[in-house]
Specification:
The chain is mainly α. It has helices spanning 6-9, 14-37, 41-67.
């Protein structure tokens, strides 16, 4: 059953995201270096931008891991109650 609160109650496998970020960081760094050495500045810039995005994601994942289980609710935490009604404000009443 969908409650409409899935984005706020979603759980993320942070350790998996950490290792995928490390893997992506390695490949983005290698791509940046490789394309720079091959005199392909456009592709080196794209890989450099990707490396920046992966680095930011890596730091965010580490921050969430360090925050502990308070921000990573377990399966025993029930989802929030769904909003009743249409969800739109009533005008004129």
């Amino acid at each position: 059953m969908r409650t409409g609160s899935e984005p706020t109650t979603a759980r993320s496998p942070l350790r998996l995201r950490f290792w995928l970020s490390v893997w992506g960081l390695i490949w983005a760094a290698a791509g940046t270096a490789g394309f720079a050495l091959a005199a392909r500045p456009g592709w080196a810039a794209v890989c450099g931008a990707l490396m920046l995005i992966v680095t930011v994601d890596l730091f965010m994942v580490l921050r969430h891991i360090r925050q502990g289980p308070h921000f990573q609710p377990g399966p025993d935490v029930p989802p929030y109650d769904p909003v009743r009604g249409s969800g739109r404000p009533r005008h004129g009443h």
